[in-house]
Amino acid sequence: MDRRKVCVLMALWVMAQLSSPGYGLRALRRTTGGRKGAAGLTGQDANGVPLRRSKRGWMWNQFFLLEEYTGTDMQYVGKLHSDGDRGDGSVRYVLTGEGAGTLFKIDEKSGDIHATKRLDREEKAYYILHAKAVNRFTNEALEGQSEFIIKIHDINDNEPRFTKDPYMARVPEMSDIGTSVIQVTATDADDATYGNSAKVVYSILEGQPYFSVDPETGLIKTALPGMDREVKENYQVVIQAKDMAGQMGGLSGTTTVSITLTDVNDNPPRFTKTLYEFRVPESIEIGSTVGVIRAMDADIGENAEMDYRIIGSDGPGMFDIATNRSTQEGMIVLRKPLDFERKRQYSLRIQVENVHINQRFFSVGSFRDEATVKIVVEDVDEPPVFERASYVMEVKEDAARNTVIGSVSASDPDDKNSLVRYTIDRRTDMDRVFNIHAGNGSVFILRELDREENAWHNISVIATEFNNPRQISRVPVYVRVLDVNDNAPTFATNYETFVCENAKANQRIQTVSATDPDNPLGGHRFFFSLAQEAAGKANFSVRDNKDNTAWILTRRNSYNSLQKSIYHVPVVISDGEFPMQSSTNTLTIRVCTCDREGNMKLCNAEALTARAGLSTGALVAILLCVIILLMIVVLFAALRRQRKKEPLIISKEDVRDNVVSYNDEGGGEEDTQAFDIGTLRNPEAIEESKQRRDIVPETFYPPVRRPVLPPTRDNNGDVRDFINQRLQDNDSDPDGAALRLPRHLRLRGEWLRGGVPQLTRV
């Protein structure tokens, strides 16, 4: 039966219920009996209180309407009628409210109400409208506006719908019967308060016999014991929800539930073999993996985690086993070196066990397993092996060349026992101090040794197989050079010693010590003495303090630096070793001037100058004076050479420009440096900036270059006339600006040969 037929049957059934006597609809009509204005009792409310209404002049019904009407005509809802309607057409009915005019229409004359469209209760369950009756001609209200409701009756037109599709669920494997898995929920849009349209019942369509569902709650439970994830992990269960309480004609919906069995540790680990065999070379390094074994576990995740351990071995401590957590494999690791010649095979007993054990499944059996591992050692051509890990040899530093200082020994560990050849790694002996016998490993020296230069030598010896030169090994050899007394002691430092002129006899002026690069076993013991060649006429003596130091003492009361300012004292220092070594060291002693407390004041050259009464400051002043005098002499000589070229007067017109005022007295006839009369004769020698050399001029006029005139008698007369004229002008000039001669010059009344006046110092 399809959905349309179901809807038609439901509509017929509802209409039959509405038309039957005693149905819930009741008409409210105006009461005609009683006094005007009295109210008629129409019923009770939900609390039993009597309901009263005002007196009305017209009657109407509370209407009900079926949803999903499928007829071709408009669906009839009901009829409104007023007591004032006499059937003469003077009354007009008016409808307002929800859906008025669109969903619902009223006949203005008859008051019949029709639904114009098919209605769906799931969209809107009821509509509230208002009706009134008015006079068609006067438009006056015959009755007050009244409110009524049109309710939509539900039919079963919606199937149940699940909230999810599909559902995902998980349940542990091996769960007991009735273990809850998941609850599914379906909803029905039909009216749950009316009939069984929304009453849903659940059932399982697919998934038996593993699961079941509660018909009322939709709770899915396990229905079969011992469901094993390792056999089947995923299940697809189809659940149906049907309304009408599951009766015939009800609508239904389905959903799929994907159920996964989660793992539990219900399977023990098991080795795939009882015996594992691995072959490894004897040269494998410690810490390397010898072999890998793996036990199988049907479980997954942490339920499959396992631990391996060695429970028995014929080589204790040779091997260890560790678990690789990512692959759950047992890795057998070497802990000690293998030797084919010593042991060629090992046997191990390995046990594996789950890490996380479920107590619930102890009854299944032991969750551990065992296996045997056989490890076969293969022979490898190994390099020679030295008897020791390192060698220490000793040799005295005075050993002769080719002296054997020790030997090394290596052998081939293989069965063939190949011969071994020895060499020295020259990268460790760049100076070629040592060598080794290729056959017997004897180490000898090639050069002389010096402990003070290098006390230790670190070399490497290489052993190579004759049959296979690629097989080599090395061993370090440490050579210690033993000390021999081959160095003489010397002063510990460079001593600066002085003696005061006022020193007393047997006065200590210096304490000396010695040093020796040798390193005797009992420590150093030095002896000090004065050299034999200086003992007879010595001014100083040496006293050995028996503690590797000595005092230098004076042998007379006073010393004179003028007689001798420096003394050289030869000191002999010898050690107490065999063979005894000694050396003569010279101590330089200066004679110095000291104060009463013996503090040095002056020594050597300073003492000599002090005797002359000159201090250091005085010597510096004298030196500066000498330098200044030398500079003056050099300057004077240079000026003399330049003066010979200076012209004094060129012509009568430019004498004024070349006369310089010095404002100084004349020096007389011997004053040859003040003025050079030759410049009057030789004007070519004048220079632009030439002045007097001994007096700074006050002012001067810049020289002007004039044409050169040859010296003649007439020229000398011009000079004489010029000078006379200038003298007269100078006498009449109170400032003396016409002709200003130096104070130390004056003009004599006589003339030299050639008519040139002579200027003499006064």
Strand pairing plus helix content: what structural class? mainly beta
Round the Cα radius of gyration to an integer and report it.
72 Å
* Quantity of strands, as a count: 50
How much of the sequence lies in strands comes to: 35-45%
Mean pLDDT figure: 79
Query: Alpha-carbon distance between the termini?
Result: 171 Å
Number of helices: 7
- What gross morphology would you assign? elongated
In which range does the helix fraction lie?
A: 10-25%
pLDDT under 50 segments (min length 5)? Answer: 1-49, 51-60, 606-612, 648-662, 683-709, 736-762
For the largest beta-sheet, the strand count, sense and barrel status come to: 5 strands, mixed
Please describe the topology of this protein.
Layout: H1 3-19, E1 41-44, E2 50-52, E3 58-59, E4 63-66, E5 75-79, E6 81-82, E7 91-97, E8 104-106, E9 112-115, E10 126-135, E11 146-153, E12 161-162, E13 167-172, E14 180-183, E15 186-187, E16 201-206, E17 211-213, E18 219-222, E19 234-242, E20 252-262, E21 270-271, E22 275-281, E23 289-293, E24 295-296, E25 306-313, E26 319-324, E27 329-334, E28 345-354, E29 368-378, E30 385-386, E31 391-396, E32 404-407, E33 410-411, E34 420-424, E35 434-436, E36 442-445, E37 456-465, E38 472-482, E39 490-491, E40 497-500, E41 508-515, E42 526-530, H2 532-535, E43 540-544, E44 549-554, E45 566-575, E46 582-594, E47 600-603, H3 605-611, H4 616-643, H5 655-658, E48 665-666, H6 678-681, H7 713-732, E49 743-751, E50 757-761
Parallel strand pairs: 4-11, 13-20, 22-29, 31-38, 40-46, 48-49
Antiparallel strand pairs: 1-2, 3-6, 5-9, 7-10, 8-9, 10-11, 12-15, 14-18, 16-19, 17-18, 19-20, 21-24, 23-27, 25-28, 26-27, 28-29, 30-33, 32-36, 34-37, 35-36, 37-38, 39-41, 41-44, 42-45, 43-44, 45-46, 46-47, 49-50
